[in-house]
Amino acid sequence: MQEKKELNGILPLWKPAGMTSHDCVMKIRKWLKTKKVGHTGTLDPNVTGVLPICVGQATKVVQYLTDAGKSYIGEVTIGVSTTTEDADGEVVKQKKIAKPIKRDELLAVLNQLTGEIEQIPPMFSAVKVKGKRLYEYAREGISVERPKRRVTIYELTLLDDKEIFTGDTIRFSIKVNCSKGTYIRTLAVMIGEQLGYPAHMSNLVRIASAGIRQQDCFTFTEIEDKLDTDNIDDLLLPIEVALNELPKLEIHDTLASRVRNGAVLPIPEPFENYEGPIAIIYQGKVIAIYKQHPTKVGMMKPDRVLVFE
Fold first, then answer.
1. Residue numbers of the domain that contains 17
2. Do 243 and 40 meet the contact criterion of CB atoms below 8 Å apart?
3. 44 has catalytic annotation
4. Per-residue pLDDT tens for 212-252?
């Protein structure tokens, strides 16, 4: 009996609400009958959207996809804050909107929060403090000091076309392009703080991650249909697609053999001042990710080597 070929690639999943990212991974593992499955950046259970799932050799590049930028569309509610900073939490504070909020005022706040900003992760998050996740402290009713983190908001756009926002509470939609580690829930709270009101993120959808967009994704139903026809390969994106944002170095036959064996190489001239990861390409495929050598000046070493049978 012929051995089944190993699946390698990125499964662009449209994550449904009500499942954790880990739940999604476990479901895919069970379906594909392999442990070589990993996700590329946690989405809260109530959030839908793009969740790239790495399969086979692609699990070696999870880190680079997780590090890539992400895009969201969210609904911000001003006038109410919650324990979780989203619609799932219990109400903490309420404050009626005293006077209408003008569009220009709101745009000024969004502009102020664009660029590099400092965030404090929410208590209901997976950030670890003293070996324990913040949500575990929160469930026990324990409040701990949370480490600040610097993140980058590349773009923060108001999607509503109103000139004036009125009501006891107000809602509006935003589009966010941001760096890894950004808490969009916390961004909603920060918008509220700038306006002088409690706030939370009342709805959130991730529309892109690591260059993979909503239109590239498949639902669990669509994936299951492909499993029934044994054509799951049709849904997998090449690893190269997910690493599009990395600079690339194309190499020849002799060097490819050395790369596969983990050779330390001189840094090519175009990358002399570049400190990030470089995708090594051979015959159109990424075969390794190299980084600047920590101790040998002018040299680079493999961070990940991908071996295809």
1. 9-68+210-242
2. no
3. yes
4. 999 999 999 999 988 877 778 889 999 888 788 888 999 98
